[in-house]
Design goal:
By secondary structure, this protein is of the alpha+beta class. It has 5 helices and 6 strands, in the order H-H-H-E-E-E-H-E-H-E-E.
Length: 155
């Protein structure tokens, strides 16, 4: 996470991101994982985390069919080697296996992540101007995406 933010990716934090802040943020997610509201996958390169992706599951009865893809991150040293695509595919399969039929996400407009999502069959549905500050504090637009997965027939 520290490498991702300090490398310029807009994932909710400003640069420079302190390691202690990142660790504390992850520790705050433990209860959500234990309760089933958040699923997290980690790719390792030896002892180092090389990438991660998460699915956030809604707690409302009318939205159990969907999940939000959040915090897909790949360390700068591991980019361009298919790790992001592999993490994305893992989350998509897990969502379908859990009965989720619709995934959605937002990502900074014109970021490298947009190429990944487009190549993986996600549909861009629009942009929101000045949605979030990038790591340097500049307001940037975000693009919204969705992808239908799993068995949508109900059977």
């Amino acid at each position: 996470m520290v490498d991702t933010v300090n490398g310029g990716a807009s994932i909710g934090f400003l640069a420079p991101l302190d390691r202690a802040v990142a660790v504390a943020w992850w520790h705050e997610r433990v209860d959500a994982v234990a309760a089933g509201g958040l699923a997290v996958w980690v790719a390792r390169d030896g002892d180092r985390v090389a990438g991660t992706v998460s699915l956030a599951f809604p707690d409302k009865p009318n939205s159990r069919h969907r999940a939000e893809l959040v915090k897909l991150m790949v360390h700068r040293d591991g980019r361009g080697q298919g790790l992001g695509r592999a993490l994305l595919a893992t989350a998509e399969r897990a969502a379908a296996d859990a009965g989720v039929t619709l995934l959605h996400l937002d990502t900074e407009t014109d970021s490298p992540a947009e190429r990944l999502y487009g190549a993986a069959g996600w549909t861009r549905i629009g942009t929101i101007p000045d949605y979030a500050a990038d790591p340097q504090g500049t307001l940037r637009p975000t693009s919204l995406y969705y992808k239908q997965v799993g068995d949508r027939t109900g059977g």
